[in-house]
Design goal:
496 residues; alpha/beta; Alkaline Phosphatase, subunit A; Arylsulfatase, C-terminal domain; 2 domains; 11-stranded mixed sheet; globular
Length: 496
């Protein structure tokens, strides 16, 4: 292999059921479908329960239930800067001096590409959050970056400024310090706020698309690794207009069409990238990966039609004995592809992802049920470009699967949740630990796709076996499998 270019497109809160190649019925995602048609589509790919641990896991090569391997900050730290109350330098200093200080010998994802002579770029919702700095981005191996430093400000799509290689870049006409964020629930009042375009001139994804094309054209003659973590389709729902691809869907409300338009705008970005690769003549030497960070989330909630975290009768899910299903919550999109649970939970619907890889002439089109995790991307990238994976990482390269070769089954995949950690095995066993009760739930997801039959009482030996593995993965303490244990809080002077 001759140093292929690598592009990774990373959706935000994108349940796999929202894509027509994974079964979406109300609209088509033609460009992502093209990736799937021309590439390899995974049916057992796992991320984490929300964005911060997923992105940390991706960039470090560790699962997210370790002790002392990653921390994340609160969001909203750059809001005082947008309001003129704090300087960029002061905010960056607070972030850089808070949380886990990375070991000098720690190696991050993009650094591996740099060592192989690649130019690296990250464009979009930067790093793992909830706030970052140019120093951290540079430390993690990115030669070029453009986008949001603050993941709370990412909840708005009309930023007054973004950051490019540490410089503040003002966006003319975007005047909202909160980037045009608004209440997420649907009501006439909230719709009026959402549709008021005063101070909302340029949509962030359009800015990212332009920078992506610029990056591809600038580096077409040298090997590159481009990571595009999009905001889309994370809510609150916000689009300049309803996408033509969903306008004529009479079964959908206007609010649902706006949400679908966010997915279709991400699909448009995939099309822009694929078309540009073709135009530059580098498609055959570029491998394109596409996935999400975590499972599905409901954003198009409407009273009496679709709800989240509860059923249509108003009874909240505890995510132990009750949990989201499409039918109980009225999700017309079936965004979690019929699985149990949503984002924030360790049910399959909260952690199982769309995942596609395309490399013309090298990856044969098709589907695979080989199990992978997002922390497998580091060793896979290493193998692709002829580099050694740093020692001690948790990931396993899935390059053999990509190339159609035999591959041994994956070790258990581990991920955290606010209720407690979980693991899933290649032969279908899944163990959930509930921290507050110190109890376990056991499922076989190959036979029980919706996780309806807890087998813990029936198979106590299997529970014991998997519990020992999970405890080792959590470095001897199941509490490490709660991502909130990794929050490094930063106090601002205006905090109470």
């Amino acid at each position: 292999m001759s140093n292929p270019n690598i592009i990774y497109i990373y959706g935000d809160d994108l349940g796999r059921g929202m894509l027509s190649c994974y079964g979406q019925k109300h609209f088509q995602t033609p460009n992502i479908d093209r990736l799937a048609r021309e590439g390899l589509q995974f049916t057992r790919a796992y991320g984490c329960i929300f964005c911060a641990p997923a992105r940390a896991s991706l960039m470090t090569g560790y699962h997210d239930a370790h002790a002392g391997r990653w921390t994340f900050t609160r969001g909203g730290l750059y809001r005082p800067m947008a309001e003129g109350a704090m300087t960029f330098e002061h905010i960056a200093e607070l972030i850089n001096n808070t949380g886990l200080q990375e070991r000098p010998d720690e190696v991050f994802l993009a650094q591996i590409a740099q060592r192989a002579g690649y130019v690296t770029g990250q464009i979009g919702k930067l790093e793992w959050g909830f706030a970052t700095t140019p120093e951290r981005i540079h430390r993690h191996g990115w030669d070029y970056h453009y986008g949001y430093y603050d993941h709370q400000l990412c909840h708005g799509f009309y930023p007054p400024f973004l950051f490019e290689n540490g410089d503040i870049v003002e966006i003319p006409g975007n005047t909202h310090p909160d980037c045009g964020n608004h209440p997420g629930s649907e009501s006439p009042e909230n719709a009026a706020i959402r549709h008021d375009m005063t101070g909302k001139v340029t949509y962030s994804q359009d800015l990212f698309n332009d920078k992506i094309v610029d990056f591809l054209r600038k580096h077409r003659h040298q090997p590159f690794f481009l990571f595009h973590p999009s905001q889309l389709p994370h809510g609150p729902i916000s689009v300049p207009e309803i996408h033509p691809g969903v306008k004529d869907a009479p079964e959908l409300t206007g609010f649902e069409k706006e949400y679908a338009s966010m997915i279709l705008r991400l699909d448009d970005t995939v099309g822009i990238i694929l078309d540009e690769l073709d135009a530059l003549g580098i498609a055959d030497n570029t491998i394109v990966f596409f996935s999400s960070d975590n499972g599905h989330e409901i954003y198009a909630a409407q009273q009496g039609r679709t709800v989240k975290r509860q059923n249509l009768d108003g009874i909240r899910y505890d995510d132990i004995t009750t949990r989201h299903t499409t039918e109980q919550s009225g999700d017309i999109f079936n965004g979690n592809d019929g699985m149990a649970g949503l984002k924030w939970t360790s049910w399959e619907g909260g952690t199982r992802l769309p995942y596609i890889a395309r490399w013309p002439g090298h990856i044969s089109p098709g589907t695979t049920d080989h199990m992978i995790a997002n922390y497998d991307f580091m060793p896979t990238l290493s193998d692709l470009i002829g580099q050694e994976t740093p020692g001690g990482k948790d990931g396993e390269s899935f390059l053999p699967t990509l190339l159609g070769k035999e591959q041994r089954p994956h070790a258990p995949v581990v991920f955290s949740s606010r209720l407690g950690p979980a693991l899933t095995t290649a032969d279908g066993w899944k163990l959930r630990h509930i921290n507050k009760t110190n109890g376990f739930q056991l499922y076989n997801i190959l036979d029980d796709y919706r996780e309806e039959n807890d087998l813990a009482v029936e198979y106590p030996d299997k529970v014991d076996q998997l519990a020992r593995q999970l405890l080792r993965a959590c470095d001897g303490n199941f509490a490490h499998g709660n991502p909130d244990m990794h929050l490094a809080y930063i106090y601002l002077k205006e905090d109470p």
